[in-house]
Amino acid sequence: MGSNSQSEVPLHEQDRSVLILPSEPLSASRPANNPPPASSTQLAEAQQAPTTRSPANGDQSSSTRGRRTTHSNVFNLLTLTELRKAAWAHIYYRGIQAGDAAISTRRVPTWKEFDALMIRRHRYIAVDPRDNRTLGWVACFHPYPQWSHLYRDDELCSWKDPLNGRQGKIAEIQIMVAEAERRRGVGTFLLTSIVTSLEADSRYSVVQANLFEDDKVACRLFEKCRFEKVAKRTCAVRMLDGPRKGEWRHLITVEYELTPMHELAMQRQQQQQQQQQSNSAEPPTAIDTTVDPNALLKRPRLE
Question: Of 13, 124, 157, 272, which alpha carbon lies 20 to 30 A from 103's?
Answer without folding.
Answer: 124
